[in-house]
Design a protein that fits this description.
- The chain is an alpha+beta fold and 183 residues long.
- The chain is built from 4 helices and 7 strands; from the N terminus they run E-H-H-E-E-E-H-E-H-E-E.
- Strands 1-2-3-4-5-7-6 form a 7-stranded mixed beta sheet, with helices on both faces.
Length: 183
């Protein structure tokens, strides 16, 4: 799928401007899909912590603002964060991309994911991981189109909507860093 011709530019998201829109998109995903393995809608307190973790880690939060919506409304957003809490994993991140329910299928997820790949490369990271519910065909197709490859599936690691969920991992290896170091 090609990106729509009129995609507004990506913007760095801030708590002050975008937290309500991100919360709305996340909560829709929690309550109506298996994109997140949460049961309960998140609160604004959660967003305070979430943005704080992103800022402390130097992790980007990128979004596409809705030009026809109120200030700070988002069509899509994405971010990445630490993959595992061990020093040797410092060159690997796990990313997430979410598209507002009425905007899916328009190429916005691709725009956001491409920007996250560019941001990871700029930060001299080496590996991006996407944990995707194995039934999420749209997200899997998007990742495969951008060069991510399936590296494993963990069967029945989640239980939501009265069924067991399999978690598929997709990986993209970046050509950076030029000179990785231990420690």
């Amino acid at each position: 799928m090609n990106a729509p011709k009129t995609v507004p530019p990506l913007v760095p998201c801030s708590f002050e401007r975008h937290a309500p829109a991100i919360l709305e998109i996340l909560n829709d995903a929690i309550l109506t899909s298996t994109a997140l393995y949460d049961y309960q809608a998140r609160t604004m307190d959660h967003m305070v912590t979430w943005f704080d973790v992103k800022a402390r880690g130097g992790f980007p939060v990128l979004g596409i603002e809705d030009p026809d919506g109120p200030a700070g409304a988002l069509l899509a957003f994405g971010s990445f964060g630490a993959f595992r809490p061990f020093p040797a994993n410092k060159y690997t991140v796990e990313h997430s991309v979410y598209v507002r329910k009425d905007q899916r299928g328009k190429g916005l997820g691709r725009v956001v994911l491409e920007a996250l790949v560019a941001a990871a490369t700029e930060r001299q990271l080496h590996c991006m991981i996407g944990g995707i519910d194995a039934t999420n065909a749209g997200s899997i197709a998007l990742h495969e189109r951008l060069g991510f490859r399936h590296v494993g599936t963990l069967p029945q690691v989640g239980f939501k909507f009265s069924k067991w969920l399999d978690l598929a991992f997709y990986q993209l290896i970046l050509p950076t860093p030029a000179e990785p170091v231990d420690g």
